[in-house]
């Protein structure tokens, strides 16, 4: 089971979570980050690093953001990997 980036990341795109990921499973979209569910090893390292509390384990994604589970999988397949911290959008 993978971790999922959800709605609070949209428009801010903090990358604190990226630098602690041991598997380089984050991908960068234009307005937010995504986690590749195939690469994610459920280590939990990214959760506490997210300043907007946008990352949840797949089984615990709030009901209003459940569509982000599929969105992360789809977008991770078509966006570039990100491994270094960048300036956020906000």
Brief rundown of the structure:
With 90 residues, the protein is α+β, with helices and mostly antiparallel strands. It has 1 helix and 4 strands, in the order E-E-E-E-H.
Number of strands: 4
What is the molecular shape? globular
- The CATH topology is given as Alpha-Beta Plaits
User: Helix and strand string, N-terminal first?
Assistant: EEEEH
Q: Which percent bin holds the helix content?
A: 10-25%
Oligomer: single chain
> What is the count of DSSP helices, taking H or I runs of 4+ residues?
1
Strand order of the largest sheet: 1-4
Cα-atom Rg, whole angstroms?
11 Å
Low-confidence stretches: none
Q: What are the salient characteristics of this protein?
A:
single chain, 90 residues, alpha+beta, Alpha-Beta Plaits, two-stranded antiparallel sheet, 1 helix, 11% helix, globular
Summarize the structure in words.
The protein is 11% helix and 13% strand. The protein has 90 residues and is of the alpha+beta class. The protein has one domain (3-76): Alpha-Beta Plaits. The strands form two sheets. The chain has a two-stranded antiparallel ribbon. Strands 2-3 form a two-stranded antiparallel sheet. The chain is globular. The mean pLDDT is 96.
Write the layout of secondary structure elements.
Elements: E1 3-5, E2 26-28, E3 33-35, E4 55-57, H1 67-76
Antiparallel strand pairs: 1-4, 2-3
